[in-house]
Amino acid sequence: MTRQNSDKQLGRPGRRWQPGRWLLDAERLGAPLDLAKAFPHQPTAPLEVEIGVGKGTFILARAKQRPEVNLLGIEYAASYAAYAADRARRAGLENVRLLAADAETIVGQHLADASVLRVHIYFPDPWPKRRHLRRRLIQPPFIDHVRRVLPPGGQLLIVTDHRDYFEHMQRVLHDAPGFARTHFPQMLDSDEHIVGTNFEKKYIEEGRSFFRIALVKYGD
Ligand SMILES: C[S@@+](CC[C@H](N)C(=O)[O-])C[C@H]1O[C@@H](n2cnc3c(N)ncnc32)[C@H](O)[C@@H]1O
């Protein structure tokens, strides 16, 4: 989904939504990001990060399911980030914060070493056209950043419905040092869905198959 498309669907950020403190100011982030300031409600709680939150369905459900964990959602479509933050505000979820920013910049420059317990990436844009392939998020430099921000035992979880992108991911991750395969954890207890994102629900209705990747970082 492009930024322009999401702005058309949801309207410009700040007009319709009231994201309040749930939307962090991406222009004033420290390096590293001050997690205690971002999550004053529980400043030392473990952190999970979702990349490409879309409308925020997964991050909200996960935050309700695991109130003892802090969840940071990174979404570069500003309208979606604001919409998801508005939903978190209305739900009163103090363990959720959103950032309207590019995940490569945030993971690469603003998250401290070993600071993230889990990285969730659900239905990342597949960029199927040949000339767009280099826009895919799952590339070796990005995976190097993910490895750095995870502690030993930390997990990278990815789901896609796109076979070609899945095969590309398999190649990138096969060559990535420091990770071992693990079982994909059950994410939502209360229903049968494994992830619970908007795209997952849509694709289930369409009868599409999913490809799941769960990796654990092993110790040095
Ligand atoms: C296909 S949608 C999936 C949304 C949601 N995960 C779901 O399953 O319903 C992919 C989302 O990732 C966002 N996205 C893509 N690349 C990104 C990046 N580099 N940084 C942050 N968000 C990104 C897009 O704006 C879009 O909202």
CATH-defined fold name: Rossmann fold
Mean pLDDT: 90
- What's the CATH H-level homologous superfamily? Vaccinia Virus protein VP39
Number of domains: 1
* Broad CATH class: Alpha Beta
Which blocks of ≥5 consecutive residues have pLDDT under 50?
Answer: none
End-to-end CA span: 37 Å
Proportion of residues in β-strands: 15-25%
Bound molecules: S-adenosylmethionine
Number of strands: 7
In DSSP terms (H or I, runs of 4 or more residues), the helix count works out at 8
Question: Structural class of the helices, strands and pairings?
Answer: alpha/beta
Notable features of this structure?
binds S-adenosylmethionine; 220 residues; 8 helices; alpha/beta; Rossmann fold
Structure explained in plain terms:
There is one protein chain. The protein is of the alpha/beta class. It has one domain (3-217): Rossmann fold, CATH 3.40.50.150. It has helices spanning 3-10, 35-38, 57-65, 78-91, 103-110, 140-149, 163-174, 198-205, and strands spanning 47-51, 70-74, 96-99, 118-122, 155-160, 179-181, 211-217. A 7-stranded mixed beta sheet has the order 3-2-1-4-5-7-6, sandwiched between helices. S-adenosylmethionine (SAM) is lined by residues 1, 51-54, 74-77, 80, 102-104, 122-125, 137, 197-200.
Topology:
Layout lengths: L2 H8 L24 H4 L8 E5 L5 H9 L4 E5 L3 H14 L4 E4 L3 H8 L7 E5 L17 H10 L5 E6 L2 H12 L4 E3 L16 H8 L5 E7 L3
The site of S-adenosylmethionine has 22 residues, from helix 5 and helix 8.
